Amino acid sequence: MKIRAAAVQYHLHTIASFGEFAAQAEHYVKTAQEFETEFLLFPEFFTTQLLSIPGEDGLAQGIERLPDYTPEYTDLFRRLAADSGMHIIAGTHVVRRADKLYNTAHLFFPDGRIETQEKIHITPTEAHEWNMARGDGLSVFETSKGRIALLTCYDIEFPEIVRMARAKGADVIFCPSCTDDRHGFHRVRYTCHARAIENQVYVVTTGTVGSLPTVDFMRGNFGQAAVISPNDVPFPPRGIVAEGEINDDMIIAADLDLELLNEVREKGSVTTWRDRRTDLYTDWS
Length: 285
Description:
This protein has 285 residues and is an alpha/beta fold. The protein has helices at residues 18-34, 70-84, 124-129, 159-167, 182-199, 258-267; strands at 2-9, 11-12, 39-41, 87-97, 100-108, 114-118, 141-143, 146-150, 172-176, 202-206, 209-210, 226-228, 240-243, 250-257. The strands form three sheets. It has a six-stranded mixed sheet.
């Protein structure tokens, strides 16, 4: 089975209304639709663009206001998924639950269903500057094209959580990301490659580009989309199926052959998934 996946290098810039945000999102969805995309990934924190909309005082809004846009956000992407027939991983959006803020990835199905995955590991900026809470559970989602997991940015830097996702049957990890400099970008990118090699899975990742001059901690963005495979003979030698141009406003698309994953797990040059030592360490407890 093959999956055609696409990833958006979402361009952040100041906007004046939710309508502008919706029009930009729809542009990317329609572009991906022209490529006959089945799964479309947006970046982490791309909805912070909504904070650049001036409040009643004429100033940009704070992170605590972002959950107020949740109904409009979910209505928009539920409609776009239904209209396009795509599974849309609409990046992450900040939601409020029990008076706490969570950085939450959203998966919109073509049939109208919505699944979510809260970010499990949060960065110091998220914790101390934005007062966000950590998610406490990992989900693997069953789709018509196989099982996938959503692990956001910093999550991919922890080998254990990706091993758990694979143990629960995930063949593709979608990793929405948001990094403000080269150091952060390469931390995420290198660990995406490591997780693909360790677990013999595909990783689809992307990040924000552009800037929001009036939104704190979103003033700088360094991003690039990539579709990453294990490093073995059926795949490209560098493990890069497709990648974008750094910091450009664009979409990439690629076909993910899930049968090749089964082949390398069984008889690859190395069989890292099969050879893990569960007698010494477990996948999860």
